[in-house]
From TrEMBL:
It comes from Alexandrium monilatum. The keyword Signal applies. This is Phospholipase B-like. Residues 1-17 form the signal peptide. Keywords: Signal. The lineage of its organism: Eukaryota, Sar, Alveolata, Dinophyceae, Gonyaulacales.
Amino acid sequence: MSSAVLWLAVLSALTAALRGGLLPKWLPGMNPFPAAKPGICTEDDQKSKSWAVPDVIIQWGDRRSATTLQFQTLCAAMLLMHSSEPEKVICHYWNGTIVWDVLLSNCYFGTYWVMKTHNSTAVRDFASVTFGRRIWFFATAMSTWDAQFVPWVLGVPVKYVQTMRQLSLKGYFIVTEYQRIFGLSDDQLEVLLQYMRYWHTLRQCCGRQMSFDFRFSLLNRTWRRHKKSSSMYHACEAYDIGAVERAVMNTRLITEHAVVPYVLKRASLIDGEFNGTWCTWYLRQVACQKLEGQWGPFEPYC
């Protein structure tokens, strides 16, 4: 989302607040957000939950603002916080507005959700109908300027806004920011860093949402979006992608959990599962079938 579009969204939200008489609720020191509604969850159930960490995490951001990297980080962090019951951690993309099944399953079955969405209405729905669940919101933005307006646009308190500027400077080490937020131990952070080191490379160099620069290279195009001296140039041609894929499958995050959310074994939600050779196979299809944009391979395969 451009700064201009985001600013217009802020103005629209302010206008709606003024018309609805809501602006006083947004003043500093006051809570503008809906109170948690116990709903069907019993008081005993609520008291038994640990409020130090969230039951549900919602990740929001505009497309191409590194939302998948933040979503993947949050999913891995949720898994690490619940390593003793990994089968209860669910990470999924959600672009609708109906949230009941997520919150009810969390209430009845003790599941822990990490949801990614590009839909700001869905975010507000989660905030207004919580059933007493502890929901944390995270977001991405293109710049620090954009980031300051995200809570106003979404209408919810946001734990952390990750910017493209930060990512360009820190790379996958940006995940260290989440240690303090979730209270991860040094060992848990090491597990997270090990995984993200390899997954971040595959995210840029494998799959339907790979780097434009690498895709153009595979298609023998001379044009590049970034100069090779840029921190945003991922130098995918320098990697043995098959070896990187096998490395991510051998990380502690994957091997030390009997069950892991399916997204942690993919470069994106629309790609195939890592198996040690999937990325090499996909790159061959891109070059052979001349796959543009986010097109998927088609039969007969190369």
